[in-house]
Amino acid sequence: MKKYLSKALSEYGVGVALILEIILFSQLSQYFFTADNLLNVTLQVSITAIIAVGMTFVILTGGIDLSVGSVVAVTGIIATSLIKFDFSASPFLLITVSVIVALVFGFLSGSAAGFFITKFKVTPFIITLALMTVWRGAAFVYTDGRPVWGLPEMFSVLGGGRFIGIPIPTIIMIIIFITAHIVLTKTRFGRYVYAVGGNEEAARLVGIKTNKILITVYSICGLLSALSGILLASRMNSGQPNAGQMYELDVIAAVVVGGTSLNGGRGTILGTFFGAMLIAILRNGLNLLNVNSYVQQVIVGVVILLAVLMDRKRGK
After folding, report:
1. How far apart, in whole angstroms, are the C-alpha atoms of residue 53 and residue 216?
2. Percent of the chain that is helix, strand, coil (3-state, to 5)
3. Which of 36, 119, 121, 232 sits at 20 to 30 Å (Cα–Cα) from 155?
4. Which pLDDT does position 306 carry in this prediction?
5. Which residue, 17, 36, 47, 12, is CA-closest to 224?
6. Given this model, what pLDDT does residue 8 score?
7. Whose CA is closest to 128, among 200, 75, 58?
8. Are 14 and 275 in contact (CB under 8 A)?
C-alpha cells in the first residue's frame, strides 16, 4: 500500500496540490473563484505555458534551453517591424506574412541550437546561454532600445481578442497542450524522445537517430517560443526589446514543478500544464490577498525548491 501511495503522489501530486490550492484561495478570497478571474489566470499563464510545452520536450531529452526569453523578444520585434513596412498589401496579408516569418525564425533558432549541441558536443547550457545573449542584444541593437509601436488594431486581436468569451491565447495554449500530449504518448517520435532522455547512448545503439531527435526538440521549443513572442507582442500591440526577460526561469520552473525530471526520460505534458497553472494560480491568489510582491517571490521560490527536491527523491 505504501508503495502504491508513493507512486500515486509522485505521478499525480502536482494535480492534487493544484486542487488544494484552488480550494484554499476560494475560501480566502471571494474574487478568486469567478469566471473573469480564472479566465484572466489562463490568459496570463498562456505565454509561458506555451513555451513550457517546448521546454518539456527539451528537458525530457536531458537538455535545457535558456534562450527562450530572448527568442520571445526578438520574434516579437521581427513580427512588429515587418507589419510596419508598407508593402501596399492588405493588413491581414501583412500580419500573416509577418507572423510566418517570425515563426520560421524561432524554428531556425532552435534548429541552430540543436545543431551546435549535436555537432560540436557542447553542453546545451552553454549553447543556449550564448544564443540568449545574442538574440537579446540583437533586439536592443535593432530597436535602439525603443519599442516598435503604431501597429494596426487588427494585430492586437491575436493576443487580446476572445472567441465565445475565451481569450484566444488560452485557446491556442489548450490546442498546443493537447497536440503535444498526443505526440508524446501516441507517436514513435514521442517514444524516441523518452528513450534519448533515458539513455542517449543506448538509444543510439538500437538505431534511433539521436541527433535528429535532439535537433527536432530544440526546433519545437524555438517555434513555440516564437509563437509566444508573437502573442505577447499582439497583446501589448508593440514589440518590446526587453520582452520575455526571466521567462526561461518561469518556464523551467513550470516544467520541473510539473514533475519532469531535469535528468531527462521522465515527465508528462499534463504535468507541465498542472505545474504552470499551479504557479500562476499561486501568484494570482497571493495578489488577491495583497501579499507583498517580494514575499511572493520567496513563496514561489520555495515551491520550486520543493519540486526539485521531490524530483531528486523520485530519481533515487
Report:
1. 14
2. 80, 0, 20
3. 36
4. 82
5. 47
6. 47
7. 58
8. yes
Whole-angstrom Cα distance, residue 134 to residue 105?
14
What's the pLDDT score for residue 307?
78
Task: From 171, 162, 158, 154, select the one nearest 230 (Cα to Cα).
Answer: 158
Three-state SS annotation for 166-224: EEHHHHHHHHHHHHHHHHHHHCHHHHHHHHHHHCHHHHHHCCCCHHHHHHHHHHHHHHH
- Enumerate residue ranges in the chain where pLDDT < 50: 4-5, 7-8
Residues paired with 156 in a beta bridge: none
Are the beta carbons of 69 and 245 closer than 8 angstroms? yes
CA atoms of 69 and 7, how far apart (whole Å): 34
Burial of 42 (0-12, 13-18, 19+ CB in 10 A): buried
- Show the cell assigned to 119: 555537432
How many Å apart are CA 159 and CA 149, to the nearest integer?
15
The three-point CA angle 65-131-197 to 5° equals: 25
271 close to 259: Cβ distance less than 8 angstroms = yes
Comparing C-alpha atoms, which of 283, 289, 274 is closest to residue 18? 274
* 59 close to 271: Cβ distance less than 8 angstroms: no
d(CA 120, CA 189): 24
DSSP assignment letter at 290: T
pTM of the predicted model, to two decimals? Answer: 0.94
Q: What is the pLDDT of residues 210-232, one digit of tens each?
A: 999 999 999 999 999 999 999 99
Asked whether 233 and 239 are in contact (CB, 8 A), the reply is yes
- Res 209: pLDDT: 96
Q: How far apart are CA 67 and CA 136, in angstroms?
A: 9
Coil, strand or helix: which one is 210? Answer: helix
- Sequence ranges of the domains in the chain: 17-315
Whole-number pLDDT of residue 91 = 83
